[in-house]
User: Fold this.
Amino acid sequence: MLQLKNVLKTAFKSIFKNRMRSLLTSLGIIIGVSAVIVMVSIGEGSQKQIEEGIQSLGTNLIVVFPGASRSGGVSRGAGSFNRFTFEDVEKIDREAALISAVSPVVRTGGQIIGGGKNWFTTVFGVSPAYFEIRNWELQDGEFFSERDLRAKKKVALLGKTITDELFAEQDPIGEKIRIRSVPFTVIGVLKSKGQSGMGNDQDDVILAPATTVFYRLKGGRHVDMINASALSVERIDAAQEEMRAILREAHRLSPGDDDDFTISNQAEISDAASETSRIMTLLLGSIAGVSLVVGGIGIMNIMLVSVTERTREIGIRLSVGARSIDVLIQFLTEAVILSLSGGVLGILLSFIISIILNRFTELVAVVNPQIIIVSTLFSAAVGIFFGFYPARKASLLNPIDALRYE
Amino acid sequence: MENKSVIDVRQLIKVYQVGDVAVHALRGINLTVSAGEFLAIMGASGSGKSTLMNLLGCLDQPTSGEYFLDGVAVDALSKNEYADIRNQKIGFVFQGFNLLPRTTALENVELPLMYDRLHRIKNPRQSAIESLERVGLGDRMDHIPNQLSGGQQQRVAIARALVNEPAILLADEPTGNLDSRTSLEVISVFQELNSQGITIILVTHEHDLANYARRIVELRDGIVLKDKLVPTRKNARKDLEVYKQEENQ
Ligand SMILES: Nc1ncnc2c1ncn2[C@@H]1O[C@H](COP(=O)(O)OP(=O)(O)OP(=O)(O)O)[C@@H](O)[C@H]1O
Ligand SMILES: [Mg+2]
Assistant:
């Protein structure tokens, strides 16, 4: 064994003398490491985003749609009790003990004119309870009240997207807009919620009193959906059962009849979304895995290509008296130095890429320390193995065979 | 002391196995070389000169036979001891120089000292510098091989072979890649070293060059054909002077 100092000195000399080769070798590791870190970070980032998106839908949320969940048997025609009415909502509000808030949702859409521009969007007719149920907050102005609801006032709350589109340079509060030519007064602007877990823009929306939308815009046909909040997450199933019983009574269903509506809750919705995001992370993870393997193959290539030159070098070293072990230690040291520096540079690069992604694109990358360790170890292992293995083979040759190697 | 043999080889045989064919490169070489000798090995191409040199230089192992180097039975040694012998007792000069590329002359010469595990050489850097000065390259120490002429590269290789004070200097066609004037320069370095007491074995094709040695051994088909002393030994330094004068006229 030679002195460590000499070994390190020789390794560094050799690395700097063969700058191009060293750089290419490290490059394989740099790219491998950073690709994996970035890919997995994007996966984790979007998973987090999806989770936040689901949170923004409102906690303890219970959603009731018309129509049976399993469409077995005869389908019911319009006019039977498969739509909701305001009475249904009021009945729930009065009777349900496990529900903290309930709101009808009357949905329509169409052309909005305001601020001299126009825009197509969705209008939700709701009650003031809806703000609490769906976690809407005000950016500016005020919510409408129960009185506004009863008075069928033509007032509207604008989502962030619409505000930006119609009133970019102007305070929208107090301005008039026309929803399908019906004039409304803007009384508030909603705080941005961003993308939902499913990827649609939650801020492209107008909220108005359910009664106004129901009678003025939809001509009094039906309530599309009921949203409610359970008192607590733990009792969400009980709350759901309670609502089911109340609605069955309201719709006069006999005990043998199927529900003519479908109740689902936050947990079920998030399960579906989590499943989607899990698949996406898996997908990104496998892409990352592939790029790691590709990076590994790159490292392998360069290591193997440099073997011819290195075998001659090994021959020269052996011929002047190096033992096999000396050669091995030298090569292992070089490989470790190259892989380590490549790994560190790869981590730095991945941080830079993540910052760029977070700042300039819609992708969110959350760098996870575990994946840094795993990918660095893997790349280093590949670099060391493919740098070391050919060197080991050469170091076991007779010096003359190593010198003659082509 | 003069008669102490540095190399003593008995019935040395080397067979290369190439596929099904066995190539008998050496068929039983007997050779004794005393300290301070300057031996030239000659012979037709394929007669086994390089094979013999590689065995003498412990770069390769014989199929059978005995080899005593400086009194030690080399064929009984382990791989590591072989490496140590190469490091301590042998200086080898190749036809193709075999210098490390992108590495200065000085660093190339220092290379064997890196593996000097007994620390025989007390001051490696100083010894390397002296060794380069001995071959007349004191002013080229920081040059890398492709900044040097062929003759200079070969002299760096000779300096490297000398740096660990070997018992014997082996040179396999060291002038094979050089023109006649440069060859003469290299040979004169050998003569100079020999006059300082270093034992030298030189392989060459050229009778002209062989006559600068003291003794000529001729191989044919892997055996020693002739072994004779040089009757009228030539002096490379003088001949080089003549050469230079002719050039100047
Ligand atoms: N590695 C090898 N594998 C197989 N055969 C070999 C090998 N090295 C040498 N030989 C054979 O051994 C014989 C002697 O070769 P060697 O190189 O010793 O000749 P040489 O006298 O040095 O020739 P030259 O003057 O051309 O250098 C030749 O027939 C050659 O083909
Ligand atoms: Mg030869």
